[in-house]
Amino acid sequence: MKSIIHKITGGLTKISHFLASFGPFGLLTIAFLDSLMIPMPGGVDGVLMLLAASKPSWMLIYVAAAMIGSTAGSVGLYRISRRAGHRALRRFSESKQKQVKDLIDRYDVLSVLVASVMPPPFPLKVFIVSAGVFRLNLLRFTIAIAAGRTFRYLLEGYLAARYGEQAKELLARYYPSIGITLAVLIIIAFVAKNLMRRNAAAKASAISEAEG
Fold this sequence. Notes:
about 0% strand, about 210 residues, disordered N terminus
């Protein structure tokens, strides 16, 4: 069994290295496959930072390729999960399923946006699968994934283009705080928006009753 896993991992590593040699097109493919739950050694983040460090002038192109590939792969996983239904969630523990369902019930697609900007090892895949199973709006889901991935990849690409080999160390040191802070700000903005909407509705109701 271990030998089979080793062969599979070795094969995926060779594929990842081969695809990376094609620059943005290879990165797009790696991001697409990784988002479809086909783990690519080195990961999207590692390949993106490697390419951006080697050719800083192409940083935005690499970021766009990673974002498009990741978003397309996430939409593919969403569609597969939507068709499979609750069977798609069997690979995750019941406690994790419940936690994610509670977050989705409370925050809808906003939970996917927050998950997409959180640093690893945050389990984004369970949010994507759950979004498909519980049939969240596809357009809003796509926008949330694209927005979260754009932020993450822009930060990684910028650090790699500017600081080269030091970028990974800087990212490991500061990104967890940055990601968590951004997630908290998104949630605060969501709560504030809902409160303003409720207050406006209450005022409108009070004026209507007074006039009546």
